[in-house]
Design a protein that fits this description.
The structure is a homodimer of 173-residue chains. Chain A is built from 6 helices and 8 strands; from the N terminus they run βαβαβαβαβαβαββ. In chain A, the strands form 2 sheets. The first copy, chain A, has a 6-stranded parallel sheet with strand order 3-2-1-5-4-6. Chain A has a two-stranded antiparallel sheet with strand order 7-8. The mean pLDDT of chain A is 94. Chain A has 173 residues and is α/β, with parallel strands linked by helices. The first copy, chain A, has helices at 13-29, 42-55, 67-73, 88-97, 114-118, 132-143; strands at 4-8, 34-37, 60-63, 77-87, 102-106, 121-124, 157-159, 168-170.
């Protein structure tokens, strides 16, 4: 299976803390293997670590200083999610057929224009403004064909899905 | 076509402003017809209105005081997105087959427990903690089978999707 890394660029602290936390939790829940930020933010790392301790999963988080070098050195398909890119409906088949590792770049409005050239694919989850959290989730859901949503994350707690109500089981892990 | 309304409960202002804005933009971009909040927030309404003026679309936004009455009076399928619910992979076919209007409830951790009983369906976009923005986007993407991502929103500006770079066209609207 190709390894999936999510690179979140341009995180601005107080303003983006919750958005970055959502990106981290979506990366974990939708089957990414690694998450990379270009700015260190301990709160986001702690939120993710707390969720992994309780609910399982082994996603790795790291912080880098030089995003450009990181992208240039990356071996695999570089997929930049942007509303200016080619529509996912047309490109997802081709992306899935490539067995290379995947770097998914989530930028936002202020993304440096070089990224468009460095990316193997610039992909629009539609071509309307919405949300980097939504874009990442829909991309990963399409990429994994929904299979990530039934994966056992082997945590201390596990939800037993209910038609009405909440049921959480403690596991022996 | 069934009408789709998104009800966002428990928006807490400063903390949730950006998350609520993402929910509003996702509702628009992924084909909801109406968005309802249980707390008035002019900033969120203005962000959405600004995007609609520029990029088109006619999603209606409103604020209500009594969410419980609103839900009880709703005629149609009530779909509460929650990680405790039945997995979307198992239920999406049944939900799509019903031709009734749809109320999609996005709550979050502090959602009142009555909602689980009032909902026709409690649906997990997976059964792991992640993001209400992601949950809404994936639900609507699955519900519309991706078709909303190519819809012409008839705005003043339109993106011409590019493999590399940005191209925006002014329309005659």
């Amino acid at each position: 299976m190709p390894k999936i890394t999510v690179l979140r660029l341009g995180h601005r602290f107080s303003r983006d803390k919750r958005i970055s936390t959502h990106i981290a939790l979506v990366s974990r829940a939708f089957g990414a293997d690694e998450l990379v930020f270009d700015e260190e933010d301990k709160d986001v790392a702690e939120s993710l670590s707390r969720v992994c301790k309780e609910w399982g999963g082994k996603i790795k988080i790291s912080f880098i200083k030089n995003w450009k070098k990181y992208i240039e050195d990356y071996k695999g398909d570089i997929i930049h999610l942007t509303m200016y890119g080619l529509n996912i409906n047309e490109k997802i088949k081709e992306i899935k057929e490539s067995k290379k590792d995947k770097l998914i770049i989530i930028g936002g409005q202020k993304v440096p224009s070089e990224i468009y050239g460095l990316a193997t694919y610039n992909i629009g989850i539609g071509n309307q403004p919405h949300s980097e959290v939504a874009a990442l989730a829909v991309f990963l859901d399409r990429y994994h064909e929904g299979k990530e949503l039934t994966k056992d994350q082997k945590g201390k707690k596990r939800i037993i899905p209910q038609a009405h109500g909440k049921k959480v089981e403690k596991t022996s892990i």
